[in-house]
């Protein structure tokens, strides 16, 4: 699997290795970025730095910025994103400390690092960079709908934050293990940090969303696969627009539906029920046919992290029989996942 930069954000070169900043959060759900980097770019992470009030850990060596720099770190990544995506005032002294220790700062939040006066001043004083990953490239085109060469897979979901990135990375790795030429295409801040390039789709102006997805996955050799990280959900009352633009612009030949069993309500939208798998498949195929009439669903990826192995296996086997499609947990792997990979490749 390749995770190289591409025309959409070729200028992005992130300084590695990373020291992961976990701030003072107490809910692990806000640490998706730190966990994603630990799990998929562990060779780029030298340790973590958290404040005294923080209880969430990525399980890495606890280092101060100076200690991280001494161990080879060249940037500190803000690995958490609390509600609203703001940089908490309580973090600022620690972020300044990192700049003083010789580290650049990397953030994937909507708030720009340079908009925090103390950080702008410290970065200028110590000749360090403030790198905002959630900034789309300039000059994005409006989508054309033109059919591109090569093959594409897009992960879609019943909701947000349930495994679309992990599924795409797992599938891209599995394709490569089978000798298939494949690229992981990152569409969110964590994926971009893992891959070193990508387009933050939720920061793109709506008119250019489909065009950004086209740039993300350009013409390729007939047997080449782009495995595209999905965003949001067509059923989310706030984020469906991002999902639709990505679906139309990606023109996927294959979709894999991602779901977390047991989740009953859309995240951040109380009263909105999680859609059924059948409805999710149906709507994604209906809308996806607009730009690729041959689109198909290859199967379902379950996030069974809250279940034991026997319970997870029994549920996935039953759901696979019910749906007539492979159902697997990409992180657990095994025969069920290999069936899903088989069906993706067709």
From TrEMBL:
SUPFAM superfamilies: P-loop containing nucleoside triphosphate hydrolases
Coiled-coil regions listed: none
Entries under Gene3D superfamilies matching the protein: NAD(P)-binding Rossmann-like Domain, P-loop containing nucleotide triphosphate hydrolases
Stretches that traverse the bilayer: none
Residue ranges annotated for the D-glutamate N-acetyltransferase-like C-terminal domain, each copy included: 142-336
The D-glutamate N-acetyltransferase-like N-terminal domain, residue ranges: 64-136
InterPro entries attached to this UniProt entry: DgcN-like, DgcN-like_C, DgcN-like_N, P-loop_NTPase
PANTHER family in the cross-refs: DUF1611 DOMAIN-CONTAINING PROTEIN, GLL3100 PROTEIN
Record protein name field: NAD-dependent epimerase/dehydratase family protein
Organism expressing this protein natively: Sphingosinicella microcystinivorans
Taxonomy of the source species: Bacteria, Pseudomonadati, Pseudomonadota, Alphaproteobacteria, Sphingomonadales
